[in-house]
Amino acid sequence: MMTDSLTLLSDLIRQARSAGADAADAVLINGTALSVSARHGKTEHLERSEGHDLGLRVFVGKRASIVSSSTLDPAHFPDLAERAVAMARVVPEDPFTGLADTWAPPAALDLDMDDPVEPSPDDLAARAIAAEDAAFAVPGVTNSEGGDASYGRNEIVLVTSAGFAGRRVGTSHSISATAVAGSGTEMQRDYDYHGTVHLSDLDDPAGIGRSAGERAVARLHPTRPATAKIPVVYDPRVAGGLIGHFASAINGASIARGTSFLKEKLHQRVFAPGISIHDDPRRVRGLRSRLFDGEGTPTKAWALIEDGILTTWLLDSRSARQLKLASTGHAARGTSGPPSPSTTNLYLAAGTLSPAELMADIKLGFYVTELIGMGINGVTGDYSRGAAGFMIRDGALAEPVAEVTVAGNLMDMFANLTPASDLRFRRGTDSPTVRIDGMTMAGA
Q1: Which of 125, 140, 165, 268 is the Cys-Cys partner for 217 at CB 3.0 to 4.6 Å?
Q2: 3 state SS of 128
Q3: Where is the Metalloprotease TldD/E N-terminal domain (predicted)?
Q4: What is the CB neighbour count within 10 angstroms for residue 73?
């Protein structure tokens, strides 16, 4: 299959060159997805999909265009190539466009990204039902939005006219459950989820369901406390969002446009001393691991923040040319759009204190378990999001809280962030529990 795919794309590249392209690249994505939803002990939804998408990008001088197709019939390639070249000839010039400046054959490393066993629909249904049953077994759980189990497999093949040819395959398994506690206007819901590359690494469905049920029951009868400026502690489930905001702020496209609040902070202190943030595309069985990026540039592990200092931007070849730098191997792409910078396995390194030790000296604080809305200003760093969770009183979690807002500025929040020691790799963007002092909780 690998040889067939590479040959297919190589033929498409030749057709593009024959049609008048100075350079070209082509990407093929083959995907299989299977998902099952169960509710009240019965399979409610079963879906399987298989598909393939083909994308061709051509360059005529400093002009570029992209066409995509769902057909892999080589008989259609001449028309596809001619259409792409015709489009490229009439679009405005882009001085920064082009293939990646550097590429290398994919390294001979095994990231163990392909689980060879595909589960059956019955297997997935059993996991979904087991998760929901465990949620219902939690006292106080009165209803369910169901359990879900899924499997996917994607093959991505990239060929460029510069000579790069690479293929990567990745699988995914996931399980989730959503439980409802209480009744009437007092109902509360919560969930738990886990996803892995290999089934053998996936959490027990019963554990996922039980966690969802316990989280929902714990949220019953929430209060809305008075507005205060207090320490805010983020549960790992939501703390990764803060690291995602940081990644967006160092995205090379935003830096080149001048639309990031961190645009002047390269090689300067952004976090407190001792803080590190890493992006590791070559972690074995990592959810987003890859040996080459969307342009064929080899990947490598990066310390984006080292001892609190910002070390680099996230760059694809276009943003790198705009900033007169080299690509960092962070290009991501689909079949119908150009590459753009994106992270892989991004994480905030663990600290030395346990979550209990991190909260021990907090007389009054807020522990966040859910965030709502996207109130982030990428230009100024202003941050304001709806939140729910629990009050912290004398260093311990207390009554549930809902319908409040947490606000601050990401520059100040990063400078006052302290990580706990409970880092686990579960989401692709991961963080331990974090504490940020001096935030505003807006309530009653």
Answers
A1: 140
A2: helix
A3: 24-88
A4: 9
* Residue 102 binned pLDDT confidence (cut-offs 50, 70, 90): confident
What is the rounded CA–CA span in Å between residue 310 and residue 418?
Answer: 17
Please tell me if the domain spanning 2-90 has the same topology as the one spanning 121-152+171-218. Answer: yes
Among 403, 414, 371, 439, which Cα is nearest to 261's? 414
Strand order in the sheet with 309-310: 309-310, 302-306, 277-279, 346-348, 429-430
Strands (E) in 320-381, as ranges, are 331-332, 340-341, 346-348, 364-372
CA dihedral 244, 250, 252, 253 (to 10 degrees): 60
Rounded CA-CA distance 52/287 in Å is 21
Q: Which amino acid is at 96?
A: F
- Quote the distance between the C-alpha of residue 412 and its chain's center: 24
List, in order, residues 6 or more apart from 317 with CB less than 8 Å away: 98, 99, 100, 101, 295, 297, 327, 331, 339
| Domain spanning 121-152+171-218, CATH class | alpha beta
Cα–Cα dist 134/361, whole Å: 35
Name residue 297's amino acid. T
Whether 195 and 287 have beta carbons less than 8 Å apart is answered as: yes
* Domain range summary for the chain, segments of one domain joined by +: 2-90, 121-152+171-218, 222-444
Q: Tell which residue, 273, 262, 184, 218, has the closest CA to residue 397.
A: 218
Q: Is the dihedral of CA 435, 439, 443, 444 positive or negative?
A: positive
